[in-house]
Specification:
Blueprint (H helix, E strand, L loop, with lengths): L2 E9 L6 E9 L5 E10 L2 H7 L16 E8 L11 E4 L2 E3 L5 H4 L10 E2 L18 E5 L4 E2 L6 H4 L5 H11 L8 E5 L3 H12 L3 E6 L5 H7 L4 E4 L3 H6 L4 E6 L8 H5 L1 E9 L12 H4 L4 E4 L5 H14 L5 E4 L4 H9 L6 E5 H4 L4
Parallel strand pairs: 10-11, 10-13, 11-12, 13-14, 14-15, 16-17
Antiparallel strand pairs: 1-2, 3-4, 3-8, 3-17, 4-5, 5-9, 6-7
Length: 353
Amino acid sequence: MASQKAFGWAARDTSAVLSPFDFSRRTTGDEDVTFKVLYCGICHSDLHFIKNEWGNANYPAVPGHELVGIVTEVGKNVENIKEGDRVGVGCIVGSCRKCDNCSSHLENYCPEMKGTYGSTYYDGTKTYGGYSDIFVVDQHFIVRIPDNMPLDSTAPLLCAGITVYSPLKYYGLDKPGLHIGVVGLGGLGHMAVKFAKAFGAKVTVISTSPNKKDEALTRLGADSFLVSRDTEQMQAAMGTMDGIIDTVSASHALVPLIGLLKYHGKVILVGAPEKPFELSAFPLLTGRKTVAGSTIGGIKETQEMIDFAAKHNIKADIEVIPMDYVNTAMERMLKSDVRYRFVIDIANTLKSA
């Protein structure tokens, strides 16, 4: 199969140290869009993957599934995308396009879904992510970026943004006047606050860190703040929330969160702690409450989310870094030392040897 040269940064083993890497991508096929990558966000999933913490890494591994850039070439069957367009790719680069999920615009739940990195594509090649100079993808999986959206702070919306937007919509938590809790104030949590506020909700941030209160209220516009370790605060807020978006990937107790819900309330998990939750039936039975989950969104909904963000001026709070800072950024991300998403300036700092 014809290929074109590409350059990026890859991890070679579970040490997860990233370094320069020459590789190849397929040439632009009839249905493909090739674009120059300008920025790529760093997601916690990138680190899980290159450390092989989920057992699915195949090295060399080029991570990155929050990538944006400018189209350089399109295949002959590509419609409504042209050279020079601003585009992005999130977590998905392939799906079967035939199953019930795909027919319902839920490519993210397709059994044959192909991830932007770490998957084996239909032609037998390995998928490499966005920590690279160019990207080639089937036109179906392209997201168009409106002109009023800054590319650097839009990149994280392609994972962090859709991960919180989709459950807010699906579970009916997008109605004005609802009271929404957001657990955790990181890359996902700060986006959940912004989208919930744009939907017209009252938003309470729930965190173990009292020192995040000022940031939650002043910088992000949350209405109130709960310290989850403060039993008096938690008790006072019992039965007040319509829904909770739980973004935390560290082990934590669910029962106190369920107690914050009104009857028919929902706790939606978008983080993925390694250890199973302890959960008895009674907190759910008393009030017909729900614990549910959600992961990213389909392509149609991702475009809808980006267009909604453009209309409401929603963008991620980011720290832009050069490519050669990426290993330090991974260490800092592990300590939650970022407000709230690192974004790599690929175009200006990715230099081939």
